[in-house]
């Protein structure tokens, strides 16, 4: 599905501000709204970003969702609970003020976590990120272990029947059955998104399913970062450019 819809890099250009009018806005978090940091817990939602998201959600009559690999619990801790959230790569959905729609955690994830912990304990710099539904092995601070991390994650995925999600300097094991594309499709079927034009901003390979789904539903993807073959229609250079683009479409408070 992805290969046939990839556009080559030179065809990508910046989106026009008018694209946001009438849109259902889906925003990836890390690398799209906040810059990539050394560690997952080194990231925060600053007041400027929170204010911008609130203004956008207001202007779009609530049609704004954060679609992230982060868990809903983490997104909530980061101060994003007032927005529609799709967490853990589409496995969880949370509408503001309602119970989180989430599957039960798999026993296989606890087993994978124990193996990641033992492995990382012997290799300084590796970091295990524990989520309710998945577990991540980060090697950003110890890139010399990248190949070993990949071998372990690949073996465990096979052994435990889990899906290997590749991220930025991260191997994550999780259940299959959902992705950012399926989360966008699910949200587009319900209020307040239904009937609007989906627009999804993302930076990572894991965002490609979201770009494909946005296009499939009559909207567009916006790739954040360096040009690459992608299913996105538009591109912005980096987080600052995303924030500038979004801010240009909603008025500052008096
Ligand atoms: O879908 P996203 O919102 O982009 O989340 C993807 C993963 O983001 C986080 O990891 C990445 O960002 C970290 C902080 O900048 C960085 O240290 C790490 O190297 C990146 O892979 C998060 O920790 C993961 O749980 C998300 O799946």
Explained architecture:
By secondary structure, this protein is α/β, with parallel strands linked by helices. The chain folds into two domains: 157 residues, Rossmann fold; 69 residues, Trehalose-6-phosphate phosphatase related protein, domain 2 (Alpha-Beta Plaits), CATH 3.30.70. The protein contains seven helices and eleven strands. A seven-stranded mixed beta sheet has the order 4-3-2-1-9-10-11, with helices on both faces. α3 packs antiparallel against α4 and α5 packs parallel to α6. Bound molecules: ligand L263DTV3. The site of the ligand O=P(O)(O)OC[C@H]1O[C@H](O[C@H]2O[C@H](CO)[C@@H](O)[C@H](O)[C@H]2O)[C@H](O)[C@@H](O)[C@@H]1O has 24 residues, from β6 and β8. The site of ligand L263DTV3 has 24 residues, from β6 and β8.
Concise overview:
The protein has 254 residues and is of the alpha/beta class. Helices cover 30% and strands 19% of the residues.
What is the residue-mean pLDDT, rounded to a whole number? 94
Count of the domains:
2
Task: Assign the structural class, choosing from mainly alpha, mainly beta, alpha/beta, alpha+beta, or little secondary structure.
Answer: alpha/beta
Please estimate the helix content.
Answer: 25-40%
As for the CATH topology of the largest domain, it is Rossmann fold
CATH class label of the largest domain: Alpha Beta
- The CATH homologous superfamily of the largest domain corresponds to HAD superfamily/HAD-like
Sheet with the most strands: spatial strand order: 4-3-2-1-9-10-11
What kind of sheet is the major sheet? 7 strands, mixed
Number of helix segments?
7
- Strand count: 11
SSE ordering: EHEHEEHEEHEEHEHEEH
Distance between the termini: 46 Å
Shape: globular
User: How big is the Rg?
Assistant: 18 Å
Low-confidence stretches: none
């Amino acid at each position: 599905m992805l290969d046939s819809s990839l556009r080559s890099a030179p065809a990508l250009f910046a989106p026009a501000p008018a694209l946001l009018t009438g849109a259902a806005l889906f925003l990836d978090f890390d690398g799209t709204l906040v810059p990539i940091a050394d560690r997952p817990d080194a990231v925060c939602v600053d007041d400027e970003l929170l204010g911008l998201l609130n203004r956008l959600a207001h202007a779009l009559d609530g049609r704004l969702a954060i679609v992230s690999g982060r868990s809903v619990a983490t997104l909530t801790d980061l101060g994003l609970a007032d927005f529609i959230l799709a967490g853990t790569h589409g496995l969880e959905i949370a509408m503001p003020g309602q119970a989180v729609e989430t599957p039960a955690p798999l026993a296989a994830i606890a087993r994978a976590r124990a193996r990641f912990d033992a492995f990382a304990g012997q290799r300084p710099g590796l970091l295990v990120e524990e989520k309710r539904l998945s577990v991540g092995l980060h090697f950003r601070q110890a890139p010399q272990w990248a190949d070993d991390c990949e071998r372990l994650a690949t073996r465990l995925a096979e052994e435990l029947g889990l899906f290997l999600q590749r991220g930025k300097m991260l191997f994550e094991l999780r259940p299959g059955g959902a992705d950012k594309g399926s989360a966008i499709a699910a949200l587009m079927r319900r209020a307040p998104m239904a009937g609007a034009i989906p627009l999804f901003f993302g930076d990572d390979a894991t965002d490609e399913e979201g770009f494909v789904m946005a296009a499939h539903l009559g909207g567009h993807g916006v790739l954040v970062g360096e040009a690459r073959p992608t299913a996105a229609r538009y591109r912005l250079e980096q987080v600052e450019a995303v924030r500038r683009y979004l801010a240009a479409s909603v008025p500052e408070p008096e």
